[in-house]
Amino acid sequence: MVHYADGEKRYVLATDGMKKGQEIVSGESTPIVNGNRLLLQNIPVGSFICNIEMKIAKGGQIVRSAGSRATLMALDGAMAQVKLSSGEVRLISKECYATLGQVSNFEHSAERIGKAGRARWMNRRPAVREAL
């Protein structure tokens, strides 16, 4: 949860290494620090980024799941080349925003539930598949 200077409170995606009380900034000329949100054209090539906009001013749409990250590969004309974790390289407008760093909780995919009872604690019902 982020507390803005005007008193407003909102949730944002936490990046790896973000601490309680850390100041995060969003804008065109913000410092290059994990958690800050910048235009793709102002991010150094080779940096890890997450929470990337696909369309200008629409908000982050890709690279948002636990532990995910993308790499800014190059800036070509009006577009930026972004390499996703799947290996796909996408062209995104340089006017779109992205957050510096990797989304936190990267060990989420290694978590084992272990037994049916623990799945029930998480409100997951049993799945019964019919034989054909």
Could you explain the architecture of this structure?
- The protein is mostly beta strands and 132 residues long.
- Helices cover 5% and strands 27% of the residues.
- It contains one helix and ten strands, in the order ββββββββββα.
- The strands form three sheets. A six-stranded antiparallel β-sheet has the order 3-10-4-7-8-9, with no helix packed on it. Strands 1-2 form a two-stranded antiparallel sheet. A two-stranded antiparallel sheet has the order 5-6.
- The longest helix has 6 residues, at 116-121.
- The protein is globular.
- It starts with a strand and ends in an 11-residue tail after the last helix.
Q: Say what oligomer this is.
A: single chain
Rounded radius of gyration (Å): 18 Å
- The shape is globular
Strand order of the largest sheet: 3-10-4-7-8-9
Poorly predicted regions are none
| Sequence of secondary-structure elements | EEEEEEEEEEH
Derived from helix and strand composition plus strand pairing, the structural class reads mainly beta
How many distinct beta strands? Answer: 10
Strand percentage, roughly?
Answer: 25-35%
- The amount of helix comes to under 10%
Number of helices: 1
Largest sheet: 6 strands, antiparallel
Q: Give the termini distance in whole angstroms.
A: 48 Å
Mean pLDDT: 93
Keywords summarizing the entry:
single chain, mainly beta, 27% strand, 1 helix, globular, 132 residues, six-stranded antiparallel β-sheet, two-stranded antiparallel ribbon
Short description:
The chain has 132 residues and is mainly beta.
